[in-house]
Design a protein that fits this description.
Blueprint lengths: L1 H8 L17 H21 L8 H14 L3 H20 L3 H4 L2 E3 L5 E3 H25 L9
Antiparallel strand pairs: 1-2
Length: about 150
């Protein structure tokens, strides 16, 4: 989370909603997605299962609407910090046996809990790379180390 937020903090205000193409995601949209998923991962860990939406298109539309509703850097940080705190609290509830279990999707596949435990950090790192790439698109070649 801190790594992602640090990278995101270097996006200039006038570039938060910039997109490379009309259908591309902006840095703000990527950050909103990343922040919201922290809480979603926490729920999966708490529920010991992945989401199994009956209507995937509807579920994705709701997810997209939640992302679009986040319109500021401060909101991203608030949602991300809250979700990350929820992840840490959810991890604290796992017994050794639950760490070894697999999460049922209800859709014929499962995910090892150990993989889910690492997914919040991995997910944030992947999307930090997207932010880095956008910075090169607007010719920001600076290397940010802090």
């Amino acid at each position: 989370m801190e790594y992602f937020l640090r990278n995101f903090s270097h996006v200039p205000d006038d570039k938060l909603t910039w997109t490379a193409t009309p259908t591309s995601k902006s840095a703000l949209r990527i950050a909103a997605h990343t922040a919201l998923y922290a809480g979603r991962f926490a729920q999966m860990i708490r529920d010991r299962r992945t989401p199994a939406p009956e209507n995937l298109a509807e579920w994705l539309a709701e997810r997209d609407a939640e992302e679009i509703a986040i319109v500021s850097r401060d909101e991203v940080e608030k949602v991300f910090r809250k979700g990350t705190a929820e992840v840490l609290a959810a991890l604290d509830t796992l017994s050794p046996e639950e760490v070894e279990m697999s999460l049922d999707s209800g859709q014929g596949w499962s995910m090892p809990m150990k993989q889910m435990m690492g997914l919040p950090g991995f997910h944030a790192t992947l999307h930090a790379g997207q932010i880095d790439y956008l910075q090169t698109c607007w010719d920001d070649q600076q290397v940010y180390v802090g």
